[in-house]
């Protein structure tokens, strides 16, 4: 079944909730523009078919009045020719028009692929930069923590050495004190019964 401008006008799309989509008003406005252009193209096609039929039958049609150019519409540039699907379907040389559409589609495809590759490379570059930054930050923190632990270890080892030295000195002093006390005890002590006890 051939698609008509009325099909575009009456087409209803299902609304999707909770997902990204296009603004329905913008889509409707754009479809309205397409329908207007499509109707113009169909009318022009019908006119051209009538002229072609007249030429083929040998009857030259009366010269149609040339419409005045509209000031609001600038003349199209001859270098850029982009045809709509309706123009392709009604073009006298459909193969050439189809080739133009295919070329346009291929160019758009190539542009999208190039954009995708550029975006991919950008994301990879940003990720690598961020990863390098995270690794560098982690290494710096690791070095700082190792330096702090090394300093703490040195401090603890110094404190342990001080405590061991204190222990040795304390033991030496304690032994000397005990030996002195034992000598004094031995020197001041007398044999049992050597001193008479008074019976009074």
User: How many DSSP-defined strands?
Assistant: 0
Strand content: under 5%
Helix content: over 70%
Per the principal axes of the C-alpha atoms, what is the gross shape? rod-shaped
Q: Please give the largest β-sheet.
A: none
- Name the helix and strand elements from N-terminus to C-terminus, one letter apiece: HHHH
Helical stretch tally:
4
- Which regions contain 5 or more consecutive residues with pLDDT less than 50? 66-83, 85-92
Radius of gyration (Å): 52 Å
Which structural class do the helices and strands define? Answer: mainly alpha
Q: Which assembly state applies to the chains in this document? A: single chain
Distance between the termini: 151 Å
Average of per-residue pLDDT values: 77
Describe the structure.
Helices cover 70% and strands 0% of the residues. It is an all-alpha fold and 200 residues long. The longest helix has 95 residues. The chain is rod-shaped. About 13% of the residues have low confidence.
Characterize this entry briefly.
Helix content is 70%, strand content 0%. It is an all-alpha fold and 200 residues long. About 13% of the residues have low confidence.
Features of this protein?
200 residues; mainly alpha; 0% strand; rod-shaped
In terms of topology, how is this protein built?
Blueprint (H helix, E strand, L loop, with lengths): L4 H6 L13 H33 L28 H6 L3 H95 L12
């Amino acid at each position: 079944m051939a698609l008509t401008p009325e099909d575009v006008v009456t087409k209803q799309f299902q609304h999707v909730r909770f997902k990204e989509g296009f603004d329905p008003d913008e889509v409707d406005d754009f479809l309205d523009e397409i329908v207007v252009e499509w109707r113009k193209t169909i009318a022009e096609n019908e006119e051209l078919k009538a002229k072609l039929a007249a030429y083929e039958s040998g009857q030259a049609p009366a010269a149609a009045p040339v419409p005045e150019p509209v000031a609001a519409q600038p003349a199209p540039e001859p270098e850029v020719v982009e045809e709509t699907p309706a123009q392709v379907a009604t073009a006298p040389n459909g193969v050439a028009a189809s080739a133009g559409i295919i070329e346009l589609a291929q160019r758009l495809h190539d542009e999208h692929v190039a954009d995708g590759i550029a975006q991919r490379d950008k994301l990879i570059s940003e990720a690598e930069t961020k990863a390098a930054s995270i690794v560098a930050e982690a290494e710096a923190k690791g070095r700082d923590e190792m330096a702090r632990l090394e300093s703490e270890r040195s401090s603890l080892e110094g404190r342990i050495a001080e405590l061991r030295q204190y222990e040795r000195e304390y033991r030496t002093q304690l032994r000397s004190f005990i030996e002195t006390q034992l000598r004094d005890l031995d020197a001041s002590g007398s044999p049992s019964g050597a001193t008479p006890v008074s019976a009074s």
